[in-house]
Amino acid sequence: MKTLQKFAIGTAAASLMLGLGGCAGMSSQDKSTAVGAGVGAVGGAVLTGGSAIGTVGGAAVGGVIGHEVGK
């Protein structure tokens, strides 16, 4: 695995963990959106070799999916 790819995956995972720490006052749908965005970011980073565009795109798609699933 390339160093940049490892960094992108690590950064996305750390952001997800820190972000979920502040979820106490969030609705179920908000939590689903956040989890979806985090999972999408990691997936996008892995699929595109750590590309910033892939990571952001994955987060956007994952957030939309999480939002719809959380309804």
Short description:
The chain is mostly helical. Helix content is 79%, strand content 0%.
Structure notes:
It contains three helices and no strands. It has one domain. Helices cover 79% and strands 0% of the residues. The mean pLDDT is 81.
Q: What is this structure's SSE topology?
A:
Layout: H1 3-20, H2 28-47, H3 52-69
Number of strands: 0
Task: Give a short account of the largest sheet.
Answer: none
Mean pLDDT over all positions: 81
Give the topology string: H per helix, E per strand: HHH
SS strand fraction: under 5%
> Helical content, roughly?
over 70%
Uncertain stretches of 5 or more adjacent residues = none
Coarse shape: flat
Total domain count:
1
Spatial gap, N to C terminus: 37 Å
The DSSP helix count reads 3
Coarse structural class: mainly alpha
| Rounded Rg | 12 Å
Q: Tags for this entry?
A:
mainly alpha, 3 helices, 71 residues
